[in-house]
Predict the 3D structure of the following.
Amino acid sequence: MKTITVIGSTGSIGQNVLNIIRAHPKQFRADVLVARRNAELLLKQAKEFKPRLVCLFDEDSLRNHEAAFHKLGCRVTTGEEGLFEASTWPDADQVIFSLVGAIGLAPLFKAIQAGKNVAIANKEPLVMAGELLMQEAARRNVQVLPIDSEHSGLWQCLEGRKKESVRKLVLTSSGGPFRKRKSFSDVTIKEALRHPKWRMGPKITIDSATLMNKGLEVIEASNLFGLEVNRIEVLIHPEAVVHALVEFVDGSHLAQLAITDMRIPIQYAMSFPERLNHIYPSLDLVKVQALHFEKPDFRRFPCLEFGYEAKRRGGTLPAVVNGANEAAVSLFLEGKIQFLGIPRMIERVMNCHRVKACPRLADILEADRWSREKAVQSL
């Protein structure tokens, strides 16, 4: 039985992790559960899964529920120190990270330094500090496994292949809610949150609407698989059936196909190197009938180009792009800027930044802090 720590158990990824544990109780045990502030759902999960440790990052959210957690026999922690304890729990075989935002970066490094195998659903750590993270993982001989569907698809196509045999990696995108929209001047929050294929949290849904999610995924793929950014391509694929493709030097292509269900990449990361019986419908290609692909429009979706530029210039710039985007998306969701204000704000912050090459973790965290502050100042 594999002992699992779930960092972000109350979010959509975390809840799907727990669904898989329910379906395979002989293979997995949830020993540690962590949430940012949803105390009621975390308590409900703790009652069902009986973890030995729970962490509620937001201390204020814990006040009315701490006694109930203690009654279950759980050790209860909070704040950054609690997050570090959860990430390095001695008995954990795998730590799954799905906290949205840069908050998960330092705990992820702690987990790797503690020799824990990690599976990552949130892009931000691999975007901000992917090179440092992968270097540390190699030193500690631990696995860093992707959970998002596109990078899981690339990983499955690349498994056991030599890097020298790869010509390019292809990430696919459904195109988001505005694939065919010509003007973005009057986009509403409600429209931007209406994704045609996926049900996700508000931040990643807005990133899908701007295609910043693909810009970040380009950086993530380059860091995860050690390939130059000019060997990574993005294609719009509205059916969202082909999640990733790899082109090899001999002209062959391998693709990973599946229904649009996050439980598939999550379960594979949890069970690797084994494959378990699935708990969801199978892909029916006869019903799909046709697969379409098109190149993205960088002019209409400049956030995609920001990802490429950030990785090409490197250093602290990926952290700055990520931080500025998080700040801009928050301001958009609060109604303080328009949809087009998101790429404009990111570009302003990028242009103000003096890139520091070969940054340490402290430099990356400072660049993240600076970018958010600068984004708000640029209003």
Q: What stands out?
A: The radius of gyration is 20 Å. The first helix runs from residue 12 to 23.
